[in-house]
Amino acid sequence: QLIDTPATGRAGGVYTWEEVQSHCNRNDQWLVIDRKVYNITQWAKRHPGGIRVISHYAGEDATEAFTAFHPDLKFVRKFLKPLLIGELAATEPSQDRNKNATITQDFHTLRAKAEREGLFQARPLFFCLHLGHILLLEALAWLIIWIWGTSWTLTFLSAVMLATAQLQAGWLQHDFGHLSVFKKSSWNHVLHKFAIGHLKGASANWWNHRHYQHHAKPNIFSKDPDVNMLHVFVVGATQPVEYGIKKIKYMPYHYQHQYFFLVGPPLLIPVYFHIQIIRTMISRHDWVDLAWSLSYYLRYLCCSVPMYGLFGSVVLLSFVRFLESNWFVWVTQMNHLPMNIDHDKHQDWLSMQLHATCNIEQSPFNDWFSGHLNFQIEHHLFPTMPRHNYHVVAPQVRALCEKHGVPYQVKTMWRGLADVFMSLKNSGDLWLDAYLHK
Predict the structure, then answer these.
(1) CA nearest to 232, candidates 243, 241, 245
(2) Which of 241, 347, 394, 419 satisfies CB 3.0 to 4.6 Å to 351 for a cystine?
(3) CA distances (Å), origin 350, targets 73, 339, 380
(4) DSSP assignment of 212-268, as one string?
(5) Residues 6+ apart with CB under 8 A from 298
(6) What is the pTM of this model?
(7) Bridge partners of residue 30, in order along the sequence
């Protein structure tokens, strides 16, 4: 067998997994898609989804992630052609490391079946109605104030309606961001900028570069930004013990389940995300996203300043963000925080996603309240699938998991919320034990 060893590679090269895996540092990155080997070292910097998400797959098989994230594979393959340096040796398996070949094949079959059944086709009316109810909520919130005045009661009612509109706009921008509404990616991108920029005042590029990493490697340290807790919390069963053994104590982690209520849900959107978004747009010179974001604040101030003045408008917006943040954190964390959080085990797509996600029971309220992210498992397996089809594919996913002995967890809403609290307490206890005794 011919093994081509130079770091640059050449189009006719034949490689082993061992060699591919050696090209996984920042200045030398290879990956495998459908047994073809690609040198992505230079392309990673120009990758539309960001350098980090593609770099997380350097040195390994990226076939399943590639298929999951790109709705138009034929179009994307045009960009792959110049990067091709060879293929895997005939004696090498199609899967690397801990990826289960049978599960991978069965999941591929399930995805093909879902595509044949039209489950990746969006219903325009669903998304039009969703946008309509967001605009209606926001309009009613301002009308109440303009017509009946700015009493504390009416201001509170208006703030709740504005926060609800913000959260629902958050679920809608999530749909566009995952390219799950229109067949043409460009249409999704434009509407994504409108939804996250003009309806919410945030940045599409910031969201894309952050959120796709989460999907590519969920609950995996140093790869999923959502488990980068900035030393404020320790999560999972591995990190607390590591911190404890190294005597790391930035915070009293055995009380984190209590101070979570003060610094987690209330502050994530109003403080942390706010600072991160502004810093990202300015440092990357992302003037288009900044213009979209400013259009939201201009519209908000035009509506609020005549009634509340500038200071009152800032206070009202801060309260709206506070309400939105509490809602957002509890909904998004109940699917992930109580699940397995660890270093990369290089599992196949299905196993990796199922270890990091769980579902919340279906009901019309739960669907609306969580933006259909109560079907978090299906969303993670098929990120480009329109959310109104999750309930259709869910029984097939569950059957596949049962066949291969992969746990498929479904909880009540209350159980999911309670598990966020309990998981933080358990992680804090693990840290304290390791800190004192190991």
Answers:
(1) 243
(2) 347
(3) 20, 15, 9
(4) HHHHHSTTBTTT-GGG--TTS---TTTHHHHHHHTT--SS-GGGHHHHHHHHSTTTI
(5) none
(6) 0.94
(7) 39
Whether residue 3 contacts residue 16, with contact meaning beta carbons closer than 8 Å, is answered with: yes
Tokens standing for residue 252:
């009293």
Q: What are 5-50's pLDDT values in tens digits?
A: 444 445 679 999 999 999 999 999 999 999 999 999 999 999 999 9
The CA distances from residue 381 to 107, 352, 378, in Å, are 9, 10, 5
List C-alpha distances in Å: 415 to 54, 335, 369, 419, 433.
Answer: 35, 11, 16, 6, 26
Q: Which tokens is 343 given?
A: 């270093």
Helix (H) and strand (E) counts for the chain?
18, 7
Nearest CA among 331, 329, 323 for reference residue 159: 323
Please give the Cα distance from 145 to 265 (Å, whole number).
27
- Strand order of the β-sheet with 28-33 is 13-15, 84-88, 36-39, 28-33, 24-25
Side-chain-side CA neighbours of residue 189 (13 Å): 10
Structure tokens at 58: 């350097």
**Residue 230: phi, psi to the nearest 5?**
55, 35
Mapping DSSP to helix (H, G, I), strand (E, B) and coil, where does residue 429 land?
A: helix
CA–CA gap between residue 220 and residue 60 (Å, rounded): 16
Residue corresponding to tokens 């969201």: 207
What does the pLDDT look like over 221-243, one tens digit per residue? 999 999 999 999 999 999 999 99
CA distances from 303 to 314, 320, 417, 432 (A): 12, 14, 35, 50
